[in-house]
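Reminder to self: tokens first, then the designed residues, so the page reads top to bottom the way the pipeline ran.
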């Protein structure tokens, strides 16, 4: 198992329940692949450097997790298909 860190930029129109739902979707992908969530940090609504899908703000969420190599591939597919996640990035730590 490897350590990863990820950042999700979520739609600024989401309410608290919508952010929780999108977070649970990501968490489910990780736990289904026998990974573990380390930490979730919500940075809140922040201004974007450039427009993404016509939006100038996004809700930033930072997460750390452990998982196999294919976990990141599964997460990428899930985030690309989700309408609530505007952008995502996952990096291997250390």
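Designed residues (94 positions):
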């Amino acid at each position: 198992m490897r350590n990863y860190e990820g950042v999700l930029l979520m739609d600024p129109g989401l309410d608290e329940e919508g952010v929780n739902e999108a977070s649970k979707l990501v968490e489910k992908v990780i736990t289904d692949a026998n990974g573990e969530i380390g930490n979730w940090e919500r940075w809140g609504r922040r201004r974007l450097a450039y427009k993404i899908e016509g939006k100038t703000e996004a809700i930033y969420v930072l997460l750390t997790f452990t998982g196999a190599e294919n976990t990141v591939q599964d997460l990428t597919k899930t985030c690309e298909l989700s309408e609530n996640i505007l952008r995502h990035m996952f990096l291997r730590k250390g």
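The mean pLDDT is 94.
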